Structure formats: C-alpha cells, structure tokens
Amino acid sequence: MPATPAHPSPTTLGSPDDVLAREQAHLDRARDELRRMRETTESLDASTAADAFNAAYLDLVLARRVASLQDDPRTTLFFGRIDCRTEHGEETFHVGRRHVSDDHGDPVVVDWRAPISTAFYRASPTEPMGVELRRRFGVDRGRLTAYEDERLDGGAADETDDASAATGAAGSTGHSAILAAEIERPRSGPMRDIVSTIQPEQDEIVRSDIATSICVQGAPGTGKTAVGLHRAAWLLYSFRQRLDRSGVLVVGPNRAFLDHIGAVLPSLGEVRVRHATIDTLLEHGRVRAQDPTPVAALKGDARMARVLHRAVWGRVARADEAMVVPRGSRRWRVPAYDIQDEVDALVARGVRYSAARELLAQRLAHLVMLRLEASGDFPGEAAQGAIARSAPVTAYAKSLWPPLDPAGVLFRLLSDADALAEAAEGVLAADEQRLLLWDAPPRTKGAARWSTADMALLDELADLLERTPSLGHVVLDEAQDLSPMQLRAVGRRASTGSLTVLGDLAQGTTPWATDAWETAMAHLGRPEHELVVLDRGFRVPGLVIEFAARLLPAMAPGLGAPRSVRDNPGRLDVVAADPARRSAAVVAAVRAAVTEPGSVGVIAPDAFVTALSTALARAGIPHGRLDADHGDDDDRQVELVPASIAKGLEFDRVVVVEPAAIAAAEPDQRTGLRRLYVVLTRAVSGLTVVHSDPLPEALAG
Ligand SMILES: Nc1ncnc2c1ncn2[C@@H]1O[C@H](COP(=O)(O)OP(=O)(O)OP(=O)(O)O)[C@@H](O)[C@H]1O
Fold it and tell me: Distance, CA 249 to ligand 1 centroid (Å)?
C-alpha cells in the first residue's frame, strides 16, 4: 500500500503549530476526497441494470452507500496516525472511522478495522510492530485541536501542541492525556463509541477470529459492553458477506439498557445489527404470570432440557398394528415390524420432531409402493406422494407421530401429573415435579398464563420440533444473569456461528446467576472457548470503586475490584439523613449534581421511585424515569432509575438512595449485596449516597 502523502517526512518537522496545520490540511483533503467519493456514487445510474428488479436492488445499494459516505462535520475523519517502516519504505497511515481514498484508489484515511490499523491500537515500545511513531489527535467540533506523539522506536517524543488542555507528550511512559480526556469527557445522551481509544487488551478481543467464541469476565466499567459492540462492528467489516447473510444479534438485559447502548453500532456505520432483550428474543406469547423463585429456578435448570426432550420424543408411539391401505380393488397391508424399523431409523437420524414427522408419511407410502411393485404394479413416482397424502396413511402417521406444538406440550406437562412423571422420571425428584405442576391448571393451552421462565421452556420445545435458525454471531451482555435454559436458547441462535459472551460473576443478581463461566459456556453450547479477564476500570473513579469493593468479600469472594485507570479519584459523599428529611436530602444532592455538565442518575429501591419522582417534580427538577420497558427518549439530564434495572448503565454523577433498602429488596443477602454493588458502580465522576437506615454492615467498613 503506498504511503499517504500527508507531508514529506513521516516524522514531525517544524513547530507544533506547523504540525497541526499540516494535519488539518490532511483532514481538509480527506473531507474533499470523501465528498468526491459521495458525488461519484450519487452520479451512478441504477436504471442501467439488466431489469427492474436488479435496478431497484442497485438503487437501494447505492442509496446505502451514499448514506455511508456522509461526512459528519461534528467529528473528524481520523483520530490517529501511525508512521511505519514497511517493505515499501516509510509510510504514514491516518486511522479513522471509515476508509477514504483518492481518485487513484490510494488511501487517505484507513478504516480502524482494517488490518493495518491493528498496529495503531497494539504497538508498544516492547513490540513496536513496525511503528516508529504513533500520534493521537485531540478533536473539538470537527477540528483538530491537539496532538500527542509516542515514539516506539526508542527516539524522544516530539513537542506537542500545548494550545489545548488535552495535549501532552505520551513519550515512552504510555500515559496519554488525550486518552485521559476522552475517558473524563462528561457523558450526555446514550453510550458512545471508544474507537479512538480502544486499549490493547480490548483490541485483542475485538479482533479475535470469527470462529472463536469468547467469554469476557470483567469488573464494572472495564469496557465489556464497549468491547462487545466494537467486536460486532469489526466482524461485520471483516466478514461482511457472510454476516450480512446470516446476521448479527446483540442481546442485553432490558430496554433501558438497549436504549443506552443502541447508538454505538450506528455511529460506527453498522445499522443492520438487531438488538434484543432476552425477553423479546424468547417471546412465545405474552408473559402473564410470575413464578415463585423456587419454581422459576427449577424451570431454568438445565435438567428441564432432558424432561422436554422426553416429553416430545416420548410421544412417538410404537407401531403395534399393521397399516392397511386400500388401492383400487385391493387392500395393501404393511406389517407393524416393518413400520417400526422405519420409525426407529427416523428417530436415530437426529432430525427435528416435525421434520421427521413429514418424512414419516413418505416412508409409509414407500413401504406401500414396495408392495405394489412386488406384485408387478409400477404406478410411477407421483403415486408415492398421493399415497402419502391419502387418508389411511395420514391417519396412521398421526396416531404414531402426533403433530405437536410447544404450548401444547408444556401445557400437558404442567397440568398433568402423569405426563410430567413419565417425562421427568429419574431426572426430577417427586417434590420437584410437584413444584412444577400448576395449582389450578387452565382448561386449555390457549388460556395458560405463561411466565418468563416458561418462555425459555417454550423456546426449547420449539427447537425440538423445528430447528431454530442460527445467526452468524451473537453478542450476549450481562450473561451472568441468565438461567441455564435461557443460555441454551441464546446458544442455539449461534449454533453455526460464534458468540461473544460478556459478564461479571460479582454482578449476578438472579437466583440462578452463573457462578462459573465454564458452566455457562457449556450451556451456551461452547465448552471450547476463550476466557479473557478485563480488570482495568474506565468508568468508576478510585474513591468510588474502593467504597463499592468493600462488598466483594461478602458476596463474591475471590473476585477483585477493577484497577481504576482514571486520573480523577472522583468524589464520594455519604449523607446520613433524618428519615423525615430523606427525600429532601435526595433533592439537595440532585440540585448540587445538576450544576455541572453531564448526566445524573438517581438510583433508588424500586418501591421508592414513584414517591421520589413526585419529590423531584415538586422541587422543579425535570427528570426522566427509566423502567424495564423503556429508556429515556428525551435525553434529560436527570434520570430516576429503579435499582433493579441499573445494570449496564452509567451516569456522570449518581445519587444512590437508601442502600439497605436496595439490598433488602432482593430474596437473599448475597443477591442484595450484589445488587448494591451494581448500583454503586454506575458513577463516572461522583457518587452521593443518601441514607436514613444504617448502611449494610459490609459497606459500613
Ligand atoms: N478504551 C476506552 N476508552 C475510553 N473509554 C472507555 C474505554 N473502554 C471503556 N470505556 C468507557 O468506560 C465506560 C464503561 O464501559 P462499559 O459500559 O463497556 O463497561 P462494562 O464492563 O460493560 O461495565 P458494567 O459491567 O458495569 O456493565 C463506558 O463509558 C465506556 O465508553
């Protein structure tokens, strides 16, 4: 690849202002080239296609391409540069969100996902990867305001432009003021991409081969979600054709979370990735009931897969009667043992129940055909289909291999003790079977009030009947909370693709939360996988993480807190308020928090949310209110967040209300402290804890 002629020398000559001026000139040139690429595409005429269908398709492709070539004046086309020594000599590459080339096809900006860009993210003084100089740019509203050089060939870092607060020589220390400024930048609106500052250990995950399923364990704020989304973008770039066909899916815990992360992939130019919550993914009807915890836990247990397998395949009857098929003046008789051989062969083939059922009628017809032919009658191929569809054959097939649907099978299991006992014999104990049975069974499957746990069972049944189509890649976030049956459901959606599984065992807040990734990955169908641990914390500042980490020994012994990479130690205020003054103290904390730019999250026990919303409104503080079904559409500065949905979210400043009540709302102490740990680790710069009840002992320190 020829060098990008940014300027005559790959190193930086002249004063910092000269350097910045040359880089700005390169940016102006890149913008011109992007405009030229867009105009060229706009001038292409879809009507030259062979026919109307192809013309419409081409039109769509061109419109998409024009959209992808839009220039966003609020940002720059590149955020970094590497000067390399390659077999072609000295070369310079500017790295940006998308590829820009000149009219000879030579690169002006290389895509961050292109192989050459790997060195921008991973080169280090010990392993320079051919890079002599790495330059990062400070950016403000579409202009380059600063740069920072890091020499990887042992030379001294050049001067940098001191005109901006975000500059400073990275030198050989690896410390980057531009990275620090990016991490400290106040959050507003939904999560943003981290493409200009992906760290080496994160980049290794992002660029892992498509065939590899990866599990990432990481403490709060270590960038798991960010890494998973950038991995999806990288895979789509590197394996576009394959993944455009098979699809990529991101699964998160709830709607508020999806709204929080939903802008990242579009900002990277990837608009065709589906985002779903685990509940919408496994939607087999409406959830109208809630199981008591022991029932939900049992329904989520992997042993249920065996029970369901038996419940379906146990419906295939033994052939103990001959099949008699009249044809013309004769009646053809196929003995039961011949039919049983066919049934056994079908069961052994491993096809899904309904597909095998379709085959059965053909097999039965074939047995009749053999008899016809043996008697000298050769009725031709078409006759087999007619025999397969004939009333005696379909009736026989139905009695042997009844048509099933998921709701029907589950309805029978949960309402009929004998049917359940037959399927669960030797798998579930008698008291477990009793637990599963409905106290007052509905009269029909249509009247059944399914629970969330039932959805995973229905999904398993649907897959036993008909194969679930597999996607090319699935990113599963907050995976620690899924039950084994839910994990199986996600896994089958990547049965021929691969998975990126993200989570933190210490943040598991369901009674069935995973306590070992090996187990979870086995349920996902990926016993062979790569496990990576991220431990550098980008979100939570030192003071706040130290406070939250007091909980770890009590609820996740063995798991460490992240090492905060933040320069800013953050701010921690613990406010003890008189019970009658608690709401007033919360309002005061929020008033103080809104004086600075950036988002504010008020995280409270779910039961307090309505009253707090009223208190904030009375105090004239506009706020959004998140719940499991929606995020905040209006992008307000203050969000009121029930503790049960705070997972995965972040705010510049967080006010946590009554930690003891947050912990007490969970079914057991361990889960309560884990919920609290999640809640306390949402803050980027400041945390205020307001309490009237004593703090939980583990937190009081
Ligand atoms: N390399 C990076 N450069 C800049 N910011 C980063 C980087 N990595 C992560 N971040 C930021 O750190 C914050 C936390 O990231 P993220 O939400 O992905 O963490 P997480 O591990 O999923 O956290 P949690 O377990 O709490 O859900 C985000 O604001 C993200 O943009």
Answer: 20
Query: Among 355, 370, 400, which residue terminates a domain?
Result: 400
Q: Note the helical H segments in 375-498.
A: 381-389, 391-400, 406-415, 417-424, 430-436, 452-465, 484-492
Is residue 585 within 8 Å of residue 690, measured between CB atoms?
yes
ipTM over 0.85: yes
Question: Please, which pLDDT band fits residue 565 given cuts at 50, 70 and 90?
Answer: confident
Whether 304 is covered by a domain: the verdict is: no
pLDDT at 68: 77
Amino acid at 165: A
Residue 314 lies in a domain: no
Residues 463 and 575 in one domain: no
DSSP assignment of 334-372 equals: E-HHHHHHHHHHHHHTT--HHHHHHHHHHHHHHHHHHHH
Across 621-637, b (16+ Cβ under 10 Å) vs e yields: bebbbbbeeebbeeeeb
pLDDT tens, position by position, 151-197: 998 765 544 443 333 344 444 445 678 888 887 787 777 888 999 99
Question: How crowded is residue 204: how many other Cβ atoms within 10 Å of its Cβ?
Answer: 17
Residue 299 is assigned to a structural domain of this protein: no
Q: Which residue has the higher pLDDT, 223 or 66?
A: 223
Rounded Cα distance between 347 and 150, Å, is 64
Q: Count of residues for the chain?
A: 701
Ligand 1, atom 24, residue with closest C-alpha: 220
Nearest to 81 by CA among 112, 103, 106: 112
**pLDDT for residue 18 is more than 60:** yes
- CA-closest candidate to residue 12, choices 148, 139, 174: 148
Domain residues for 678? 542-700
CA distances from 478 to 549, 573, 641 (A): 19, 28, 18
Is the same domain home to 223 and 366? no
Per-residue pLDDT, 169: 46
- CA 536 to ligand 1 center in whole angstroms: 10
Nearest Cα residue to atom 29 of ligand 1? 539
Ligand 1 site residues, Cβ closer than 6 angstroms: 182-183, 194, 197-199, 202, 218, 220-226, 504, 507, 538-539, 648, 650, 681
Beta-bridged to residue 653, according to DSSP, are: 600, 686
Residue 224 among known ligand-binding residues: yes
Residues 114 and 204 reside in one and the same domain:
no
Residue 511, pLDDT > 80, answer yes
Residues 53 and 160 grouped into a single domain = yes
Which of 225, 535, 563, 565 has most ligand 1 atoms within 8 Å of its beta carbon, as the pocket-test mutant? 225
Distance 469 CA to ligand 1 centre (A): 32
Q: Is 222 annotated as a binding residue?
A: yes
Sign of the C-alpha dihedral, residues 60, 62, 68, 73?
negative
**For a pocket test of ligand 1, which of 224, 539, 564, 684 has the largest count of ligand atoms closer than 8 A to its C-beta?**
539
Tell whether the model's pLDDT for residue 15 goes beyond 60: yes
Q: What does the pLDDT read at residue 13?
A: 57
**Tokens, residue 694:** 């004593």
Q: Are residues 564 and 678 in the same domain?
A: yes
Q: Which of 400, 421, 455 is the last residue of a domain?
A: 400
What would the DSSP string read from start to end of 62-121? HHHHHHHT---TTS-S-SEEEEEEETTEEEEEEEESS-EE-TTS-EEEEETTSGGGHHHH
- The whole-model pTM stands at 0.90
Whether residue 80 sits in one domain with residue 24: yes
Q: 175 lies in a domain?
A: yes
The CATH number assigned to the domain holding 694 equals 3.40.50.300
Residues 99 and 155 in one domain: yes
Count the domains in the chain.
Answer: 4
Q: Do 27 and 88 fall within a single domain? A: yes
In the predicted model, is pLDDT for residue 379 greater than 70? yes
Q: Is 616 helix (H, G, I), strand (E, B) or coil?
A: helix
